[in-house]
Amino acid sequence: MLNVHMEPQKKENGEEQNEKAVSQIDGAKATAIARKYLDDNFGNVGMLHYRIEDLTRNGEETQFYVICSILSAFGSQERLYYKIKVNIKDGNILEVWKSKPTKEGEDEIVLTRVKFKEG
Questions:
Q1: Which CATH class is domain 20-114?
Q2: What DSSP letter does each residue of the chain carry, written as one string?
Q3: pTM: predicted TM-score of the whole model, two decimal places
């Protein structure tokens, strides 16, 4: 499993990862929302080597963390890793974290929070 670390930040009230299994339908919705966000920001060429790294439900029934990666540039061997918090009920992106370009197979990946306009 990918070892991802985020920069220290304040914890949200009551937010804990829920160990419940993610259904295929919920997982598909969550990853589709995350993919659309990346596609809207990088275009379809950036998505050629899109890969889901992990998917977990957080404390809310309809909110998920999607960890995914794309190539940092066309033909590059480095990847950009993202942790995207999505709400499958309304399709909104709630939070986004991003890594610096990282070589494939790195043991630790540090993510920093990205500021974005909420839709």
A1: alpha beta
A2: --EEEEPP-PPPTT-----SPPPHHHHHHHHHHHHHHHHHHHHHHHTTT-EEEEEEE-SSTTEEEEEEEEESSTT-SEEEEEEEEEETTTTEEEEEEEEPPEETT-SEEEEEEE-----
A3: 0.78
